[in-house]
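sry for the spam today, last one i promise. struct tokens for design, 116 residues
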């Protein structure tokens, strides 16, 4: 199954979850997502989502000096972002429980059919 569409739907939740742990800059966020298993995630998707989440008030940004080059734009989660994260987490948990239940039923039915 191609996970691209699943990731698009879950990218807001993933980014909010990463930033809720600590403030981070864009490249660091993208790297954290890739290290977590989202290997197909593109920088454009991450930065576009960051801009959108900042525009909606879920994130705020600030610049910090960097020893390695230009200033870095860090993102932090806002109170509305924390509420959005909590709601999205509940939605994701409910959805994944429902899918797990359906897949479990399917597996049981397939095993029954194989033994007939």
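last one done:
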């Amino acid at each position: 199954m191609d996970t691209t569409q699943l990731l698009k739907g879950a990218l807001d939740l993933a980014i909010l979850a990463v930033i809720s742990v600590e403030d981070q800059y864009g490249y660091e966020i993208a790297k954290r997502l890739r290290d977590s298993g989202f290997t197909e995630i593109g920088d454009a998707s991450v930065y576009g989502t960051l801009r959108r989440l900042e525009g909606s008030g879920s994130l705020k940004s600030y610049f910090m000096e960097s020893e390695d080059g230009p200033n870095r734009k860090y993102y932090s989660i806002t109170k509305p972002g924390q509420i959005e994260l909590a709601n999205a987490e509940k939605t994701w948990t409910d959805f994944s429980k429902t899918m797990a239940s359906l897949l479990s039923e399917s597996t049981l039915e397939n095993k029954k059919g194989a033994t007939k």
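Helices lie at 4-21, 26-35, 43-55, 79-115. ok im logging off now
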